[in-house]
Amino acid sequence: MRTHRTVTAAALTLALATLAPVLAACSSSDSPADKDAVRAVDPRPSGSTASGRTVATYTPATAMSASDLATTVERLKARAAAFGLDGTRIERHGSLITADAPGDSGDRLRQLAATAELTFRAVKGDRAARPADVRQRFNALTCPATGTPPLSEPLEPMPACDSDTGRKLLLGPVVLDGEDVKSAKSDLNTGGGTDWVINLSFTDRGAQDFATVTTDLSQQTPPADQFAILLDDKILSAPTVQQAITGGEAQITGDFTRQRAENLAALISTGALPVRLTVSDVARQP
């Protein structure tokens, strides 16, 4: 098991993407008139040599308004394009949504439905006060965690597994989220090696809040000097903060392949879906 590392290590970390000092660990009808269909216009092949098509059906976990349904369709459209799923059709049928892509695209269509809620939470020390329900969930959590974690409350602390060290961490309330991120792009790690990274650029408000939070964390003692970045309540990185980050940009680095980095950047850039979707069916068609 690897130990926790700083931003200069190959493990998951967070760092400035500039020349500034590096952060150490740095309800709807289903009539034809009410159906939305989106087809990618890029003529390039989807990258799959398999014939036929793959159709995935997505079911909302909770009831969706017409506005949320329309937003979900548009964001799935943007994700399909960013994923390189050219020729994909996104359609709604009442409260259900389907994605129809060329070739054997099941795995990527499953990834397409991720809620992709990006959040930032400070790591709390072992002696931090824990409400009874949080203490119970913390004690019940086994790392590495499997399956989809239950939805957390943004203003409440939560337990989570550090994907790098395998340790259980107690995290504080959300201090920044995906609305504070202006863009996310994948790139090859310029620090050497073959790992890929995700470069984040914050909004003006996000940059100010991030600077404030990292200033405070840099003055804490371990493990309360760590900052966790989560996607759908799963930790991507939990770096140690040694200096305030004031440049408005950051970088998520780790053992990412090009495809993994590109998919993460696409999910972050297109924004979180208004509601969690369940992939209720994936079927191949001739």
UniProtKB/TrEMBL annotation:
One of its GO terms (biological process) is protein transport. Residues 164-275 form the SecDF P1 head subdomain domain. Residues 28-54 are annotated as: Disordered. InterPro entries: SecD/SecF_arch_bac, SecDF_P1_head. The keyword DNA-binding does not apply. It holds the Pfam family SecDF_P1_head. The keyword DNA-binding does not apply. Keywords: Cell membrane, Membrane, Protein transport, Signal, Translocation, Transmembrane, Transmembrane helix, Transport. Residues 32-42 have a biased composition (Basic and acidic residues). It comes from the Bacteria. This is Preprotein translocase subunit SecD. One of its GO terms (cellular component) is plasma membrane. Residues 1-24 form the signal peptide.
